[in-house]
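Sequence in, structure out. Go.
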Amino acid sequence: MTAEEAKALDVSAAGFADQLTALTRGVLGDDTPRFHAINMGSKIRVSPIREDEVLQRIPVSIDGEARLSLMVRFYCCWDGSSTFMATDQADVHVFYFGSPDPLFRFEYVRRTKEPPGAHVQVHAHRDEVAYLLRLAEKGRPKKKFNRLPRLSELHLPVGGHRMRPALEDVLLFLKREFSIDTVEGWQSVIDEHLRSWRLMQLKTAVRDAPDSAAQVLRSLGYTVVEPAVPAARQAADEVKLFWP
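Output:
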């Protein structure tokens, strides 16, 4: 990465941090901790931090009392063409307030197919699932347990690399299922940020499959002209739209 590219990535990540701050404060309130972009070398970590740069959880209240907290962390980098900022890793963990173990983990790892790059892990314990995991050891030699396995070790797929849920989806989930406290106008904030996220992911998906996008646009009456010099295409197994 050149010095110019590093500087541009810093600027993009700082803008992303401001967007996340606007989102969480617009939903949870103005005292929600601010996101910051911290340069980690080849990547930039975007997360709420304390003055000593230690990761800070976001408190979430129910009926005026802190009941949950969110650990939110993104690692940003350039995409393969060094043109667009990409998420290399994303973690949104939901905790019962004060507990060291999360209830749910919404995670994304950019270069992973197995387990799925985008997945959810649920930290609960059911005997039936533990039994099935023990049975599965026979057919999955790399997955051996010397103890009783837990449901939290399952990676539940959630739409792949391009269609994965965003922080906005997690906030909506907490509002819908746990009726968390939100400030006036929270719904419009969520709607605006979610629309931006989905459109950005749509544009990324179009770059992965431009021929399919052109076909749909033509069916809608648009005129789409093939480029005189086609852009370089990724190898089929590198197109993240088709990754699990």
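Check: The chain is about 35% helix and 25% strand. The chain has one domain: 3-242.
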